[in-house]
Structures are given as C-alpha cells and as structure tokens.
Design goal:
It is a single chain. The chain is an alpha+beta fold and 167 residues long. Helix content is 20%, strand content 38%. The strands form 2 sheets. The protein has a 5-stranded mixed beta sheet, with helices on one face. Strands 1-2 form a two-stranded antiparallel ribbon. The N and C termini lie far apart (51 Å).
Length: 167
C-alpha cells in the first residue's frame, strides 16, 4: 500500500493559518482515516486548485474533477474540459493563492486570489464547490477586482494583510 504525505494550509476554528499534514493511504475515498469529512473536502479542494492552477498538471487534475463536473461560472465554458481549456490558454504566470476556507458537509468555500493571468488587476474569488464521491462535482464563483489602498474606502486589504502593488 503506497502512502504519501501532503501539507495544506487551511483555516479552522483553532487557527487562522494552520498547516495540516495528512498521511494518505490508497483507500476507496482517498482520504486519511480519522479526519472529518469537512477536513477531507478542504484538503481535496486545496490540492485540486494547486494542481490545476499553479502546477498545471492536467493529468493529475483529472483525478480531482468529476468527468460530469457542472460549471456555473459565467466566464468558463461548460464542464471539466471548459475549465481546463481556460487554464491552458491563460499565461504560464497564472497563480492561485488560497485564503480562508470553510466546509459544510459536501460544500467547500474558499476565498482566494488569482494573479498574474494577463489582466491589469488580480481577482479575488469566493469559489463554492460541491464534492461528490471524493471529486469536485459542481462550482459557482463570485469574482471581484482586487482594490488598491487608494481605491479602498475601508482601507483594509481585500485579501491577506497587504494591498496589491500594480504598475
């Protein structure tokens, strides 16, 4: 039985930025014994997003997204193929940075930042995912341009602890 260890940053009740280490055996669900469904789903989403958006490992990414994936985003073509096609056409510099992540049963919401994808400003996203049989099955998002300090009426960053610097 093969085992691998992965680390993922998640946010939970105890810590706003804790790192969880997960030993993962090859089980039918692909999850570590003893972890909660919510923790398993958060790790799944973080691993899937990193694999697709940052590492661009499409073959491995197929293992995270259902072949019957439903896409509700207005700027992405239908299904898993539409999402993968969007990433393939984005600049190689594209990066995804996760922030706050919460889970409730089969749903995960991750607040994150997409940067260096060819537009003059970053996108702050709330991605909502439904998990089914250990795969990302459905997706909705809410996107907003990231504001600079000068643009922000609240004077609080939209993501992280500092404002973006745009040239």
């Amino acid at each position: 039985m093969e085992e691998r260890v992965t680390q993922s940053k998640t946010h939970d009740e105890g810590s706003m930025n804790s790192t969880h280490t997960r030993a993962e055996s090859e089980t039918p669900e692909g999850h570590a014994p003893g972890s909660t469904l919510q923790e398993q789903n958060k790790v799944l989403v973080l691993e899937a997003f990193d694999t697709l958006f940052n590492r661009r490992d499409y073959q491995t990414a197929e293992q995270y997204w259902s072949p019957h994936y439903i896409q509700h985003s207005a700027h992405i073509e239908p299904g898993r193929d539409g999402l993968f096609r969007l990433v393939r056409t984005a600049p190689e510099t594209l990066r995804y940075e996760p922030g706050l992540i919460v889970a409730d049963g089969d749903y995960v919401i991750v607040h994150g930042r997409f940067s260096r994808f060819g537009l003059p400003v970053n996108w702050i996203a709330a991605d909502i995912l439904r998990i089914e049989h250990g795969l990302l099955a459905e997706h909705w998002d809410v996107l907003q341009d990231e504001a600079t300090e000068e643009q922000s009426k609240s004077k609080s960053p939209m993501f992280g602890s500092s404002f973006p610097l745009y040239s």
